[in-house]
Amino acid sequence: FTLTGIPGMPEKDLWMALPLCLLYSTTFLGNVTILIVIKVEQSLHEPMYYFLAMLAATDLSLSLSSMPTMVSVHWFSWRSITFNACITQMFFIHTFGGVESGVLVAMAFDRFVAIRYPLHYATILTHGVIGKIGAAILLRSMGAVLPVPFLIKRLPFCHSTVLSHAYCLHQDAMRLACADTSVNSIYGLLAVIFIIVFDALILLVSYILILQAVLGIASREERVKAINTCLSHICAVLLFYVPLIGMTLIHRYGKHLSPVTHTFMANVYLLLPPVLNPIVYSVRTKQIRRRIIQMFCWKQERK
């Protein structure tokens, strides 16, 4: 396959390389910092922060899945990718996208338990339960995406092999096949419903239940405190679903739009959540923010 940088503007690809490197550097630094802080700070060894560590690890993995081809296209103008490499990248991008959706649902469940059953929070979400939830999220996503490489591999490609993005996606490669792709389309739709739509419905129900639990709290101060513990998660949900919905709508109904718009939305969906999630949680979560400040102050004192 041939990967695409900025459609119609190859001479400006270099101007994309520097921002991309900055975004990937910020993603790596932010998510690794979150993981280190949660690991070394004993007070953060709680279910809420274990789920945050899962989100950071997922964001890091999602970025690393797309980084090799994104950087090679925009920095080195290496646009060719082998069929097997494309399928491999496709598998990991879709898998970690599904994992991120599942982790956001698990975080919503965590907030519901913390607000509705605060006295039983630690006994309900034990280390074993959290580990099983994480394993179930990963296995569900891998199981849903696993047939995709085999469905793509059976298709013949005899005409254009130019992809729309600087990385491989199932729907992008599928449209280049010179054969009937109805099986791929139906399975892709079912996978999206099983993971993304199902998770979105669970998130909606979870926040309805959370709102009911918050309204049942007598003290106004406690209600505000309970809502504040959900704000970071709400931001993470919006950062994931808003670009995803925007990209889907443009892909389905924006055929008349410029290819640059399609590329921009696809890159926003892939790059924005991993960059901003660590920033949101660092700014909104006092314990993480304080520990990060302590880390940097300790390094400066050593110098």
From TrEMBL:
Bilayer-crossing regions: 14-37, 49-71, 91-109, 186-218, 230-250, 262-283
Keywords: Cell membrane, G-protein coupled receptor, Membrane, Olfaction, Receptor, Sensory transduction, Transducer, Transmembrane, Transmembrane helix
InterPro entries xrefs: GPCR_Rhodpsn, GPCR_Rhodpsn_7TM, Olfact_rcpt, OR51/52/56-like
Annotated G-protein coupled receptors family 1 profile domain residues: 30-281
Protein's membrane topology: Multi-pass membrane protein
GO BP, one annotated term: cellular response to lipid
CDD domains hit by this protein: 7tmA_OR51-like
Keyword Zinc (UniProt): no
Pfam family, one: 7tm_4
GO MF, one example: olfactory receptor activity
GO-annotated cellular components: plasma membrane
Signal peptide: none
Cell compartment(s), UniProt: Cell membrane; Membrane
PANTHER family: OLFACTORY RECEPTOR, OLFACTORY RECEPTOR 56B1-RELATED
Similarity-based family: Belongs to the G-protein coupled receptor 1 family.
Protein name (database record): Olfactory receptor
